[in-house]
Amino acid sequence: MGTVTLGVSIAVPEPHGSLLQQRRASFGDPAAHGIPTHITLLPPTEADPDDRPEIEEHLTRVAAAGRDFTLRLSGTDTFRPLSPVVFVQLVEGAEACSRLQERVRAPEGPVARELVFPYHPHVTVAHDIAEESMDRAHEELADFEASWTATGFALYEQGPDLVWRLQRKFTFGSGNDDDGGGTAPAMSGLPRQVSRPSPACGGGGGTFAPLG
């Protein structure tokens, strides 16, 4: 039996999400259109399809115990030279994201895993492209600002075409969730064998080969 590649993230809402995705594409990042804008909570992780119900039940519990919080983006930074990533900084809500991703990756849970680098929530706007293009992303988005209230997170799956698609939304403080459709963000060993890191990490919100 094969595996599926899953990720968990908080989407950056419109109009900011599309704007940053378009800017990422304009810098020459080929992954831009397959990875809509987001903050990663669980980086790309391979899982057995049979474990999907357990994973979704776990995420429902995590969301039910959470509450809405403010997220604010401001300015740019980079992980270079450690990792070829330029990102928009998360200047408010980072601590809440950190606590949330720890619950998602809980050792006793179905997607337990360790990260390659310490978790650093952010929004990737350029990943593994020419240095001059990375510099341009860093400079041109230096004045970017956005804020919103996070009301939940969602589960995504990467298809054979490397596009991430929304599978299910999870709302804070509620057992309710919604099925999704369309494309969505991706999200850098393991106490359990249920899941393992995907070799195809894009740019995101942990600090692995960060997705954006």
Can you walk through the features of this model?
- The chain is 21% helix and 33% strand.
- It is an alpha+beta fold.
- It has a six-stranded antiparallel beta sheet, with helices on one face. Strands 5-4-3-6 form a four-stranded antiparallel beta sheet, sandwiched between helices.
- The longest helix has 13 residues, at 52-64.
Write a brief caption for the model:
21% of the residues lie in helices and 33% in strands.
Largest sheet: 6 strands, antiparallel
Q: What is the element string, with H for helices and E for strands?
A: EHEHEEHEHEEEEE
Shape: globular
Radius of gyration: 16 Å
Low-confidence stretches: 179-212
The number of helical elements comes to 4
Q: What's the number of extended β-strand segments?
A: 10
Q: What integer is the average pLDDT? A: 86
The portion of residues forming beta strands comes to 25-35%
Q: In which order are the strands of the major sheet placed?
A: 9-8-7-1-2-10
Structural class: alpha+beta
Helix content: 10-25%
Q: Measure the end-to-end span.
A: 30 Å
Main attributes of the structure:
4 helices, six-stranded antiparallel beta sheet, single chain, disordered C terminus
Record the SSE blueprint.
Elements: E1 4-11, H1 16-26, E2 38-47, H2 52-64, E3 69-78, E4 85-92, H3 94-104, E5 122-127, H4 131-140, E6 145-150, E7 152-158, E8 164-171, E9 177-179, E10 195-197
Antiparallel strand pairs: 1-2, 1-7, 2-10, 3-4, 3-6, 4-5, 7-8, 8-9
